[in-house]
Amino acid sequence: MPAFPSRSATPAPDGGARPGGAPAELAEVWTVITGMYEGYTAGDRERVDSFLDPEATLWDSATPELICGRTELNRVRDSRPVSEDGPEETGLTAYGEVVDVFGDLAVARYWLRVDYRAAPPELARITTVLRRDRPDGQWLVVHLHEDIHGQLTAGGG
């Protein structure tokens, strides 16, 4: 079983922004990611979609094929089990972020803890690539890769 990773992100060696990103940019990117998960938890598909490029690609942990674009994503969403058919999620927590910004491109790596009502929590390692949309400057997810790391045991590891 995997050990429960620390919730604290590793600071940059100089204590400031990582190479390639100012603190304000890093915060903007993280706000997009956490906003996306808040929308998911609330069951607000429209809010989630507001953070996704319409042609975004996703490696979804429960789907073997690469999801390409909103039409395919909606097909996968609509085929997911309802809470009566599968484990009911009770919360998502993204943490331990490492974000780099390079101009209009950002790469975020982080942990995602998925809590369930009647099953042990699950950990996923996530990599998200975002681009800054011009002219409004909003960050949009263009690729998301989920990698299930395992379930947590009662002892946390």
Structural summary, described in words:
The protein has about 160 residues and is of the alpha+beta class. It has 3 helices and 6 strands. Strands 2-1-6-5-4-3 form a 6-stranded mixed β-sheet. A hairpin with a 6-residue loop joins strand 5 and strand 6. The protein starts with about 20 loop residues before the first helix and ends in a 6-residue tail after the last strand. The relative contact order is 0.21.
Summarize this, please?
This protein is α+β, with helices and mostly antiparallel strands and 157 residues long. The protein contains three helices and six strands; from the N terminus they run H-H-E-E-H-E-E-E-E.
Strands, helices and their partners?
Layout: H1 23-41, H2 45-50, E1 52-59, E2 67-68, H3 69-79, E3 89-102, E4 105-116, E5 122-132, E6 139-151
Parallel strand pairs: 1-6
Antiparallel strand pairs: 1-2, 3-4, 4-5, 5-6
